[in-house]
Structures are given as C-alpha cells and as structure tokens.
Amino acid sequence: MNIIWARSLVSLVLLAIASAAIGAFAGVKWALAFALAVLVVQSLFGTYHTERLWRLLDAPVYGQVPSAPGVWGEIYYRLHKLAKRWHAQVRQVEQQHSRFIQAIQASPNGVAMLDDHDQIEWCNAIAEEHFGLDAKRDLRQHITHLVRHPEFVRYLNSHRYEQMLVMRGMGDKRQNVLSVQVFPYGENRKLVLSADITELERTDSMRRDFVANVSHELKTPLTVLSGFLETMRELPLDEADRARYLELMEQQASRMRHIVDDLLVLAKLEGDAKPPSDHAVDMIAVLRHLREDAATLSGGRHQIAFDTDDSLTVTGAETEILSALGNLVTNAIRYTPDGGSIRVEWRLIGGAAAFSVTDTGFGIPAADIPRLTERFYRVDRSRSRDTGGTGLGLAIVKHVLQRHDCLLDVKSEEGRGSVFTVRFPAQRTVRRQPQPA
Ligand code: ADP
Fold this sequence. Notes:
Radius of gyration: 44 Å
Oligomer: single chain
Bound molecules: adenosine-5'-diphosphate
Distance between the termini: 113 Å
C-alpha cells in the first residue's frame, strides 16, 4: 500500500473514531452531521487544489512552487522536482545543439539542410555566401527557387549524387567556382555541401599552362637540333659547314640547359625553407661579383657605373640575393643597345636598404610591366631569344624577393630605359662600420 492510500485510510479511521465518540456523547444525528461536514470540507479542499493544479499545468511558472499542507504539498513538490529535472535535460540538449551549430558554422564548407520537399531547413553562413542565401529570410523556401542555376536544378532532380557538381560563375562577381555535393539522409532529407574551389582551379590551370609552356620552350630548340642532326646525316658537308652546324647545335643545347637550370632554381626556391633572418649577407662580395659579371657580359659595349654604400648589408640567403640582383643587372645589359649606360646603386632609403639598376635601354611598354615576373613572359620574344634569355629570370627574382619580404618596383619608358628597384624591409637591413681597405 502506498502512502496516499495509507493517509486516506488513517484519516477515514480517525473520522470514524471521532464520529463514534460524538455519537456516544451527543447522539447519532450530531455524529452524522460532523462526518458530513468533514467530508464536505475535505472535498472543497481537494477541488480547490485540483483547480490550482489545473491552472498551474496550463501556465506553469518555472521555479514557483505553490505551498499546501499534506498530500497536495507533496504533489506540488514532486511536480517541481520533475520540472527541474526536465529543465536540466532541455538545457543540456540546447547546449549540445548550439555547440553542434557552432561547429557547422566554423566549417570552411557551406552546409545546407533540405527537408523532404527540398525546402531549406537550415544553412550555415558559408552556404549563405556561396549560394547568395539568407538563412532567416529563405527558410522553408524551395532551394531551386533561390539557386536557379540550370546545372544545379538538374543535379538536384537527377537523384544521382555519387559525383560532385562543379558550378562556375558564382559569387558577387560571378568569378567563383564551387564544388557541390548532395548527401541524402533521414527520411528523404538532403544535406548540401559546398566548397569554394576557385583558388584550386586557378592553380590547376596555372600548372597546366606551365607544363604547356615548358614543353613549348624545350620543343623549339629540340626541333632545331633534330633538324641539324638530320641535315648532317643526309648531306655531305665540308669542314667549315660542319663546324658551323655543330656550333649552332651547341647553342640550342645550351639554351635547353639554361631553361632546365632555371626551372630547377625555381623548384628549389619553392621548396626551400625561408631564408635566415639572422645571417648578414657579405654584400661587399656580392657587389664585387655583380661588377665583375657585368663587365664580362658587356665586354666593354656599355658604360657601367656602381654607386654603393659598403657599410650597408641585409640578412638572408647570399646565393639567392646574388642570383636575384644578378638577374636585374644582366637584364639591364642584355636589353640596352651598345653604347648605352647602366648604373647600379646600393643605398639606404628611408631607413631600409634599396638596390636599383637604371639603364638607357629599350624600355618596357606600361601594359607589360605587371606581367614581367610571370614565368616565360617576354616583351619581345625574339629579342629575349637573341640575348639568350629563358623568360624565367624575373620569375626567379620575384620568388627570391618574396622570400626576403622585399618589394620590386619597375619604372620604364619605351625607347628611353628602365629602373628596377628592390626595396628590402627595415628588419632585414643592417648597417656596419666600414671595414678598413
Ligand atoms: P628573359 O630571360 O627573357 O630576359 P626575364 O624574366 O628576365 O626573361 O625578363 C622578362 C622580360 O622582361 C624580358 O623578356 C624582357 O622583354 C623584359 N625585360 C626585363 N628586363 C628588362 C630591361 N632592363 N629592359 C627592357 N626589358 C626588360
């Protein structure tokens, strides 16, 4: 027997005893009247609390427990305990839900959930950005009313989602590329995942262009070489022609070797660790090398002047810096006609080291300047070939400068000449006491 039955039984027994006592002293009439009065009061008390409980269940106020004597007090207390337990459970589920939402929001991919009618149930901020949606406004909207790209509509309706869909022309500027895949789940529900692959596509197309360019660059000298080989094998040549042909073949082989060497330099630059920031380059030795190489390459055809501050140096990788600055000096000589002049300066400008090469050469049209550092980009293809260029020199310069946090500034005027300036950052600039000669 539980406590409620026990209490009711006890109160009935007490009522019976009290009524019997009243009956013995005052007669049966008074005993019945007393019992009836007690039962009426009990019933009113019960009705009052039943109604109170009804109202409480209708509009519960969490945390407010009505007080009442006896069983009703116990009922209210137990209800309160139950509500408290449920409240804690609901809060736990809410917290889990909000952590789950936060995790999906933090995802770098777009996530949209569709119901069984392909209506948007929820989407994260990245999906809003990818598809131009508004999570609040577009809720319960059919997704194809908002994402109207025919290929997306076709893909969604095809119910074949093993492959992902590539959507081009997305984003505000219609320049983005998205990869989209649908994953069915639950009861006819769908999860739409999207990723921005614009950068990936760009790198992939750059890689394809690069392979095509390398093949083309190597194919030209290779074709010339095989032509000469065929001629030598099939035609009877005198000694002079033979020597001339061999020299031309040697030139083509050397061109190919230069291209391969420069490609290896580029590959090494891309793969190597960042140059040291605590190793001071022996700039006096670098400038001496540049001066000697310039004199050899020019062979007295140009006036070359060096104006350098020998107390100034920078931190970084010496061989890389020599190769980058060397490329700029070499270009100035190669693209300046005989009799022109070249001036190399190494100075402190605004607290940072700057290296500049000024020439009075052919100059570069303004439209070509932004593209100079692209691999195999040449302003004048035949001029570059005549001077033995690979089209990779300035690409190497760009990489070395990026690795040393430097900036390259190019100023040029067609027919008048160019100025290439490398600005080192102040953090890499070091001033030394000049060494005694
Ligand atoms: P290349 O091996 O053809 O010289 P670079 O990458 O070194 O390749 O240079 C790219 C192009 O920039 C060259 O083909 C040339 O047209 C142009 N260029 C570079 N330096 C100069 C310069 N000092 N004067 C004029 N044109 C230049």
